[in-house]
Amino acid sequence: MPDRPSEPPPERIVIVGAGLAGLRGAEALRAAGFQGTLTIVGDEPHRPYDRPPLSKHVLLGLVPAEASRLPSELDDTVTWRLGIGARSLDRVARQLHLADGQSLEYDRLLVASGTRARPWIHDDEARLGNVFTIRTRDDAALLRLALAKRPQRVLVIGAGFIGCEVASVCRELDIPVALIDPSPAPLTRVLGATIGKLIGEVHKSRGVEMHFGTEVTHLDHRDGRVTGAVFADGERLSADVVVVALGAVRNVEWLAGSGLSADEGGVDCDEHGFVLDELGNPDHTIAAAGDVARFPHPLYGGRRVALEHWGHAVAQAEYAGRLLAGVEPVAPYAAVPNFWSTQGDMVVKSVGLTDGADAVAIVQGDPAERRFIALYGRAGRCIAALSVDSARWLPAYAEKVATAAPFPPVEATTDRPLREPEIQDPGFA
Q: Which keywords annotate this record (predicted)?
């Protein structure tokens, strides 16, 4: 690791973000021996909680939203400043200014401010009754109450992972639901059209109304409540609940004027996680982790990526916590990205990044049986692998991704299709 300025051990560390990354970063700091003042700032009033159950188990009513709190070994030596967001950062004075007008001094700072749900495009319509986003514990609790009233139809705008999971929940509850997206199939931007079409067929077979290759321009309403949606071609679709699932917005506004390199794509870091200033120099008092951190990934030629994955938030936060505690890293942060999602009655898991793939091949199993492995390639190398109800096969292909093995693989494997499938363009939008 390059030499960095010699400074005394930190006495005060502040973490901005009381989510998964903030929590695991705090735990890593303590585990690495940091005994000083540790303060965690969060704009929500809740202690850190697990987000994946919100769009599934909470909406189904299987668990209450408040039961999603994350377990932790942190003791009462940690100071929590909850319900108060960060407003600005003064790096010269090493002060974090909060939304309530107070300030916190720091020796080291961990940026783990995460993301928020991208709102509906029209502010007035976003405020209508029964128009929801789903990102926070409170979002999930409110949407659960609306679903419990048995709406006549739910419209889900956006067919990414969250949108598809919400549509799946509605069908499990036997609630009519329509899924709307300008892409040709669900999850196209993430998995490509080839795999997206297969997953779309699963949702369609479960009764989800599919409206693809089109987009909503306005929401209809009456007496302050949503009544449906208007499509770009003028078609109208009635509904008494609308869920906006248009992705996430990274929480970087509080860094404006700080001199750090940050924009809507995240806050830039070096290979170790130290945040870069506007000249590209690392600030060795500040690190970032989780959804908000944009860093060069060695597996993808040093291309800067910002990942919104549960496992990544944990791994990068633990790395950053040790970094800020003064533990010298033995290598740059290079954890292989991974995620999982429930789509209909299928469990989808992935390793690597499909973005930029120029080909995809089904290498094990059979899509007709909804049980297979898809391998993604770029320029003759494996860059990602996806399993559908086939998780036990995934580790072998994760190794190919981690080592950038040649694509397509040529060795024999068990349970391969009888006929070698044609390698296809994944069709990313």
A: FAD, Flavoprotein, Oxidoreductase
Q: What confidence tens digit (pLDDT) does each residue in 169-224 have?
A: 999 999 999 999 999 999 998 898 889 999 999 999 999 999 999 999 999 999 99
SS3 readout for 223-282: CCEEEEEEECCCCEEECCEEEECCCEEECCHHHCCCCECEECCEEEECCCCEEEECCCCE
From 207, 231, 246, give the residue that closes a domain.
Answer: 246
Inform me whether the pLDDT recorded for 416 exceeds 50.
no
Residues 64-74: b if buried by 16+ CB within 10 A, e if exposed: ebeebeeeeeb
Eight-class DSSP state of 49 = B
Coil/strand/helix, residue 145: helix
The DSSP result for 63-97, as a single string, is: S-GGGGBPP----TTEEEEES--EEEEETTTTEEE
Task: Look at 103-107, 143-147, 285-289, 334-338 and tell me which has the smallest mean pLDDT.
Answer: 334-338
Burial letters for 271-292: b for 16+ Cβ neighbours within 10 Å, e otherwise? Answer: bbbbbbeeeeebbbbbbbbbbb
Question: Where would I find the beta strands (DSSP E) of 136-254?
Answer: 154-157, 177-181, 209-212, 216-222, 225-231, 236-238, 241-244, 248-250
3 within domain boundaries: no
Q: How far apart are the first and last CA of the chain?
A: 38
The residue written with tokens 């949606």 in the block is 229
pLDDT, tens digit, 9 for 90 and up, residues 93-122: 999 999 999 999 999 999 999 999 999 999
**Same structural domain for residues 387 and 301?**
no
pTM above 0.85, yes or no: yes
Query: Do residues 186 and 242 both lie within one domain?
Result: yes
Provide the domain limits for residue 174.
123-246
Rounded distance, CA 108 to CA 106, Å? 5
Neighbours of 18 (CB within 10 A): 26
For 103, the 3-state DSSP assignment is strand
- Residue 240 and residue 136 share a domain: yes
Q: Is residue 429 part of a domain?
A: yes
The CATH number of residue 387's host domain is 3.30.390.30
Residues 6+ apart with CB under 8 A from 299: 334, 336, 352, 383, 401, 402, 404
